[in-house]
């Protein structure tokens, strides 16, 4: 039986679920989790939402009607639905014991997902996990209307860069069209999603862009966010979102690297134009992601991280 049908039937047959997505959730993680909550509501199921690191400030406008727990609930669920987690570790530490003992639906679209679930539906061609939740809703006869539509749409636009990236497929746009037909207004939705930054954020980003550099004959662009800059400007890791895409679109650049100093090590984000596989680079350093967007953490200081990443990306460029 096709997996989609099998999962749809299993969701219909089960009673209670804990739904979660990866830590430091992005628009796909949050969108797919909230959409799954709405879908299970529509089916009359008992649902708890969980994310170990909580809802980031830039998504507070979503104001979900159901609390997203940052601790495990006292009442143990029978089923876990794990969304957008390319590996079990991405789900966080608190949930790890339950991943071994519960019935786990691993629903994801990352390359190299190690199939840690009881049931594993990993669709690398799907633009986003939100698109996969939308497919499930269709299969279960639940229309993508109201909040369910909004949450799926948030996931679609987040992971496709507003329908610009390679992962935008005809099915993605057909799903977006269906959501618009059912009433979502893209203009106001987009304004709400984007209007979350402060002036200090823009100014900090301006400083980072001024310090951006090119390497490998202009094929690599690099930006760095230091803790010192965050302190000076009253900003933080949240304010870095998406800037790596800006430096990818310098003429001639094939790969953009963003490095962010964290308490432990350097968080790296990689973006590439079509031909270069940055997932392969991230994977070498224990990270992961997709062909054109990947990330991970380096346990070293900023200077070492710069040298390490520039070298690794240069090697990958030579292979592609
Ligand atoms: P970002 O650069 O926006 O943090 O992430 C880009 C892509 O890489 C996303 O698909 C994300 O799930 C993946 N990614 C980011 N950081 C990590 C990591 O530490 N480990 C793994 N496995 N994937 C990551
Ligand atoms: Mn995703």
Automatic annotation (TrEMBL):
PANTHER family, A to Z: BIFUNCTIONAL OLIGORIBONUCLEASE AND PAP PHOSPHATASE NRNA
All residue ranges annotated as the DDH domain in the record = 17-137
Q: What protein does this entry describe?
A: Phosphoesterase RecJ domain-containing protein
Source organism per UniProt: Desulfomicrobium apsheronum
Q: Which Pfam family would be a valid example here?
A: DHHA1
A single GO molecular function term of this UniProt record:
nucleic acid binding
**Residue limits of the DHHA1 domain?**
232-317
Q: Which InterPro entries does the record match to this protein?
A: DDH_dom, DHH_sf, DHHA1_dom, Oligoribo/pAp-PDE_c-di-AMP_PDE
């Amino acid at each position: 039986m096709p997996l989609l049908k099998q999962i749809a039937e299993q969701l219909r047959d089960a009673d209670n679920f804990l739904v979660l997505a990866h830590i430091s959730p992005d628009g796909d993680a949050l969108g797919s989790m909230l959409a799954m909550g709405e879908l299970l509501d529509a089916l009359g199921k008992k649902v708890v939402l969980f994310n170990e690191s909580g809802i980031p400030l830039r998504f507070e406008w979503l104001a979900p009607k159901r609390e997203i727990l940052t601790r495990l609930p006292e009442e143990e669920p029978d089923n876990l639905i794990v969304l957008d987690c390319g590996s079990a570790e991405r789900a966080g530490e608190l949930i790890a014991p339950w991943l071994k003992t519960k019935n786990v639906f691993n629903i994801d679209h990352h390359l190299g997902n190690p199939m840690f679930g009881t049931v594993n539906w990993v669709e690398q061609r799907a633009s986003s996990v939100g698109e996969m939740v939308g497919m499930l809703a269709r299969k279960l006869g639940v229309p993508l209307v109201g909040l369910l539509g909004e949450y799926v749409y948030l996931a679609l636009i987040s992971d496709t860069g507003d329908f610009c990236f390679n992962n935008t497929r005809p099915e993605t746009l057909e799903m977006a069209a269906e959501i618009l037909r059912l009433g979502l207004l893209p203009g106001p939705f987009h304004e709400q999603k984007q209007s979350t930054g402060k002036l200090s954020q823009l100014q900090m980003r301006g400083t980072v862009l001024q310090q951006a550099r090119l390497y490998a004959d202009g094929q690599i662009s690099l930006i760095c966010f230091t803790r010192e800059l965050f302190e000076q400007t009253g900003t933080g890791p949240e304010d870095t979102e998406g800037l790596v895409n800006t430096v990818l679109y310098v003429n001639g650049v094939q790969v953009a690297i963003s490095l962010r100093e964290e308490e432990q090590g350097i968080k790296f984000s990689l973006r590439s134009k079509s031909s270069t596989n940055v997932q392969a680079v991230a994977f070498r350093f224990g990270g992961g992601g997709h062909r054109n967007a990947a990330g991970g953490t380096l346990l070293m200081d900023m200077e070492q991280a710069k040298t390490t990443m520039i070298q690794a990306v240069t090697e990958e460029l030579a292979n592609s």
